[in-house]
Design brief:
Helices cover 35% and strands 25% of the residues. The strands form four sheets. A seven-stranded mixed sheet has the order 3-4-5-6-7-8-9, with helices on both faces. Helix 3 links the parallel strand 3 and strand 4. The protein is globular, with a radius of gyration of 18 Å. This is inositol-phosphate phosphatase. It catalyses: a myo-inositol phosphate + H2O = myo-inositol + phosphate. Its EC number is 3.1.3.25.
């Protein structure tokens, strides 16, 4: 990881703000003009009624793909919509090239229903390590960034997840039932314990931001799509949090994780959630 980071350190020093601007521009050009303005033919289903895609998702991903690869020649993009069109694109995560992991509209269901709780997620990854991330919620006017080893910020102010308050109910954002197997549903039942307050998750990216800023204590997610997790996991980690799968290993966005997994405000909370999940 150190070698991969050092190779890209200069790029991040020179272009961190350029990537931020590319994220903002994609949202301004393709996402926000369609917010609460979608026509019926702008919306499609993918795997079911809770898995939606819009013209904003597709066009923002195209714009981000062009901008990010221009900033970093030789890099490739693994985007949610590109992978949906060609699952083989996901294999780029196994290469040694710098990879941009992109979710153009995370929380598409919220976006479609006119809820401002959606965001654009970008992470820069190489050799299996996330080196930098951007979480932009344009309708909320919030931008969080993280650089490995250098901390996380929200609108320029440092983020610190802290630890849950002693004696307070542990708030845990959990996967939607449509995206869980029977075994995962059974594991999630472990969160129905005294002193724990599970609730359905919204946008994964914004749930990670909530953990990083200390307004949610943990997540318990049961799916592995890299575009939903890469940016947020780095954000939580750089804010002082931790993430663990049910076998107490860090989450691997290439797959093969013991699910559900958690990201939490601190290591002790992550251990507690994993134990409740039966890990």
């Amino acid at each position: 990881m150190i070698e991969h980071f050092s190779e890209l350190r200069g790029f991040l020093d020179r272009h961190l703000d350029d990537v931020t601007e590319a994220v903002r521009e994609a949202a301004a050009a393709e996402v926000m003009p369609r917010f609460r303005q979608l026509a019926d033919d702008d919306i499609d289903q993918k795997s079911g009624p809770h898995d939606l895609v819009t013209s904003a998702d597709r066009l923002a991903e195209v714009r981000l793909t062009e901008a990010l690869t221009a900033l970093l020649p030789g890099s490739v993009v693994v985007g949610e919509e590109a992978v949906h069109a060609d699952p083989g694109v996901y294999g780029a995560l196994e290469s040694d090239a710098p990879v941009w992991i992109v979710d153009p509209v995370d929380g598409t269901r919220q976006f479609v229903h006119g809820d401002p709780g959606f965001c654009t997620l970008v992470a820069l990854v190489r050799g299996g390590e996330t080196l930098a991330s951007w979480t932009y919620a344009p309708a909320l006017g919030e931008l969080a960034t993280a650089v490995r080893g250098e901390g996380a910020t929200l609108d320029g102010a440092p983020l610190a997840a802290g630890a849950p308050a002693d004696g307070a109910p542990l708030t845990v954002a959990t996967s939607h039932p449509d995206f869980t197997t029977p075994a995962q549903k059974e594991a999630l039942l472990g969160l129905r314990a005294p002193g724990v307050a599970p609730r359905p998750c919204g946008s994964a990216g914004l749930e990670y931001l909530a953990v990083a800023r200390g307004t949610c204590d943990a997540t318990a997610f049961s799916w592995e799509a890299a575009w939903d997790h890469a940016a947020g996991l780095l954000l939580v980690t750089e804010a002082g949090g931790a993430h663990l799968t049910r076998d107490r290993l860090p989450f691997r966005y290439r797959g093969g994780n013991a699910l559900p997994f958690t990201a939490a405000r601190d290591r002790a909370t992550a251990e507690r959630v994993v134990k409740l999940l039966g890990g």
